[in-house]
Amino acid sequence: MTDPAVVAARFREARESLPAQEGVRKKKGSLSRVDLGHQIGVVESTIQKWEREGPVGVGPIVELARLSGFSLDYLFGLVDTPVRRRTMR
């Protein structure tokens, strides 16, 4: 069984690995929750909740895997080593 806390932490890690969009100030140069929300069709508060509790359903994780290049196995906490693939933006 996947630990929701692990999924939440890896979701946050994957978001923070995405580069900020040009012309927009971001902390640490990572993609903001607002911008990620726009890309996957949810509001910032939903991203915040997912980063605390883990996403409900697999759709958001699949989309984040597509954007970030992290493997689904890593995001779901099934493996400990983050395998990155080419992103499909």
Task: Give the secondary structure arrangement, pairings included.
Blueprint (H helix, E strand, L loop, with lengths): L3 H14 L15 H8 L3 H10 L5 H10 L3 H4 L14
Helix pairs in contact: 1-3, 1-4, 2-3
CATH topology: 434 Repressor (Amino-terminal Domain)
- The unreliable regions are none
Described by the principal axes of the CA atoms, the overall outline is globular
**Beta strand count:** 0
The CATH class name reads Mainly Alpha
Chain-averaged pLDDT: 82
CATH superfamily grouping? lambda repressor-like DNA-binding domains
- Domain unit count: 1
Radius of gyration: 12 Å
Order of helices and strands: HHHHH
Helix/strand structural class: mainly alpha
Judging by the overall fold, what is the CATH architecture?
Orthogonal Bundle
* Residue share in β-strands: under 5%
Distance between the termini: 30 Å
